[in-house]
Amino acid sequence: MRRLTLPLACVLTAGLLLTGCGGGVEVGIDVSPPPSAAFDVVAKLNGYPLTNVDVFPDQDQTIQVQTGDVLELDASGPVSWETVAGTTAGIPTQSGATVVYGGVDFTETISTPGQLTLAISAPQPLAAPVPLTIYATSQYDANQTARIDIVVTR
Predict the structure, then answer these.
(1) Backbone angles phi, psi at 19, to 5 degrees
(2) Most exposed of 9, 22, 55, 68 (fewest Cβ within 10 Å)?
(3) Beta-sheet strand order (sheet of 98-101)
């Protein structure tokens, strides 16, 4: 019987050891799913949640407010906000901008792409309710739009 040479014994021993440890390298790549276009919009009036407001794309909701109120709209995802006053074309919202319509000032603040705050004021009493429409459109899918109709009284 021949003796195994030292190099062959080392190779066999290393093979047995590597077999026991599972061998090889496992490479894992985490691929995040694409962002969802789905979102909903909830509202706060003067800091208090409006419990009956939860608007999803292809839905609309009417919110009645008064002059002096602060309305906060919060979307669960990034959206583009657009304002429609009367028969005007949509006006993209801009933080610090004021839309004046029907004797009401709507001052806009955008803290994040999902939050729009409107400070509502009027220099004089209103003769009639003043409507304003806000559209929230998903930044991931322009076909996903929710509509919020605001009616200002007093």
Answers:
(1) -65, -40
(2) 22
(3) 48-55, 41-45, 70-75, 115-121, 104-112, 98-101
Dump pLDDT digits (tens) for 4-28: 565 655 555 655 555 555 555 666 6
> How far is Cα 108 from Cα 93, in angstroms, rounded to an integer?
7
The rounded distance, in Å, linking the Cα atoms of 77 and 75 is 5
CB 83 within 8 A of CB 110: no
How far apart, in whole angstroms, are the C-alpha atoms of residue 141 and residue 43? Answer: 22
- For 130-150, the pLDDT digits (tens) are 999 999 999 999 999 999 999
Asked whether the beta carbons of 114 and 72 are under 8 A apart, the reply is: no
Going from the N-terminus, what domains does the chain have, and what CATH number goes with each?
A: 41-153 (2.60.40.1320)
